[in-house]
Write a structure and sequence with these properties.
The protein is mainly β. The chain is about 5% helix and about 40% strand. The longest helix has 14 residues. It starts with a strand and ends in a 9-residue tail after the last strand. Keywords: Signal.
Length: about 200
């Protein structure tokens, strides 16, 4: 039996953001000097650790944050003037009130098509106490139309997210690097026999 799994560039972007965090774990064990056998390392007082998630983690309000943003990788290596490009983003709402993403604008593209989860285009719901992921396989998804500049991997353009209640925030959206193994992934044969 074989399994097929589809990998998305945005998933790879989030994975790349998480990898540096995995390397931050300490090597101290219960028998190490300085280990006070605390149940929770977060209980240890100390200064804030500099570094962490390389993503934007940009607050729009106390409750609404953009935690990741990027532009799709171009198949031929460059987005050219006049082309349309998918915008990836992760939006977190930790509040008790929902909001709506009503517009995305920027100086380096003519407009943005917002494709909601249900119904015709226009706005994208950001429910209370939930996350919204804008991906190419959406909905929800966003297509930036008619680029006015050429873009290669790691180059970025400013993108403004406009919310109905939270207001707006502008972030640099980089073209994501081509993820390794992009496309379909063929899993190895299952060694267990079917009975």
């Amino acid at each position: 039996m074989t399994r097929r799994t589809r990998r998305h560039p945005f998933a790879a972007l989030l994975l790349a953001a998480a990898l540096p965090l995995a390397a931050c774990g300490g090597e101290e064990g219960a028998d190490s000097p300085g280990a006070d056998n605390l149940d929770n390392p977060l209980d240890v007082p100390g200064d804030e650790v500099i570094g962490g998630n390389p993503g934007p983690d940009e607050a729009v309000t106390e409750d609404i944050k953009i935690t990741a943003v990027g532009l799709a990788y171009p198949e031929d290596g460059v987005w050219e003037v006049g082309e349309d490009v998918r915008l990836y983003a992760a939006i977190a709402n930790t509040g008790t009130t929902g909001d709506q993403l009503v517009e995305i604008r920027g100086q380096d593209f003519a407009g943005a098509e917002l494709i909601p989860l249900d119904g015709p285009g226009g706005t994208i719901e950001v429910p209370e106490n939930d996350n919204v992921y804008l991906e190419p396989e959406g909905p929800p998804s966003v297509l930036l139309t008619d680029l006015s500049t050429d873009l290669r991997s790691s180059q970025s353009i400013p993108v403004t997210f406009v919310f109905e209640q939270a207001g707006e925030v502008t972030l640099d959206a980089p073209v994501v690097s081509e993820p390794p193994g992009q496309g379909d992934f063929e899993a190895p044969e299952d060694p267990t026999p079917d009975n």
